[in-house]
Amino acid sequence: IKRIGILTSGGDCAGLNAAVRAVVHRAVDTYGWEVYGISRATHGLLQRPPEFHPLTRVPDDYDLLVKGGTFLGTTNKGNPFAFPMPDGTVGDRSEEIIEGYHQLGLDALIGIGGDGSLAILRRLAQQGGINLVAIPKTIDNDLGSTERAIGFDTAVNIATEAVDRLHFTAASHSRVMILEVMGRDAGHIAISAGIAGGADIILIPEIQYSMDRICDHITTLNDRGKDYAIMIVAEAVCNENGEKMTHQLALSQCRLGGVGQYLADNISTRTGAETRVTVLGHVQRGGIPSPLDRLTATAFGVAATDLIAEGRFDRMVSWQNRQVVDVPIESAIAHYQAVDLNGTLVKTARAMGICLGEPVR
Ligand code: F6P
């Protein structure tokens, strides 16, 4: 091994730069390799010449440890196997990416991504003889075979702070405050921040809710002397007809408001409560990474570089039982991790009297 590449792919999150920094430390200081940071996920490899940043060790790279986003750039658009072409069709540009990788003379590639990106990178690796090692990142925390992914902890911190702040304004105005958080398919951010922030109601896509149950809970809180309520809802929660109501979908249908607004309208009609909605959006992905995300990213960066040194490819670094181990990339992709309905968080929420929207049995 003489030269490795690294890229960030999919939606950004806090902690990506910290992972790249750790890879450069380990690769340069321990192994004496060159490191090329590829621009904008695989898009850099589509350019001719391929676009990359030569990454050298600088004495003071503290800024990378704490800087949000990814200085390499990223994208969640442009799957090389179904690439949007100018004529409106999609085409396969995978061979161009593979050629770009080989043009750079890379011996291995570290891909930092979530399930979608890692599936694409793995397919490219198998097709093009790329020695791939993966680092998990996703604020949604729904990737299998790892207890942690870079970005999740920061997102939960930001969402929890939002819940904390909503308590005071909700209490002042006796309102039902609804906070809509990210999670394209899973409710990990919502249930974690909901418990940590002392929410009254948490809705996650893994649990089918009943509007009657939610309204009953708000009335019961009132009867007990709490004249406000805090509700946190994952964006992937559906309306009562089982249709997803994400903001992306709302915009594509030329209407305003996702599931948070839908719930707010229903609650105020049924209970007479005054409601307000906050959509946290991309605030959850930006900003300074939490200490835990910096730590996770640094440990993952070092371990991923070591996997290359050991010649162990098609593996993903993973956090399990207090340490970093590695698993086949395939298993991480195959074992999508929804919120465990029999797990600690659901049990804890129920025990704390938090309404999860379930109909009373
Ligand atoms: O998967 C990460 C995520 O932040 C989801 O939580 C969210 O639904 C989606 O990405 C938003 O993507 P975009 O950056 O395209 O708006």
From TrEMBL:
Residues that bind substrate: 138-140, 175, 182-184, 235, 276, 282-285
Active site feature: 140
UniProt pathway annotation: Carbohydrate degradation; glycolysis; D-glyceraldehyde 3-phosphate and glycerone phosphate from D-glucose: step 3/4
Pfam families in alphabetical order: PFK
Subcellular location: Cytoplasm
GO annotation, biological process: canonical glycolysis; fructose 1,6-bisphosphate metabolic process; fructose 6-phosphate metabolic process
SUPFAM superfamilies according to UniProt: Phosphofructokinase
Protein family membership: Belongs to the phosphofructokinase type A (PFKA) family. Mixed-substrate PFK group III subfamily.
Protein name (Swiss-Prot/TrEMBL): ATP-dependent 6-phosphofructokinase
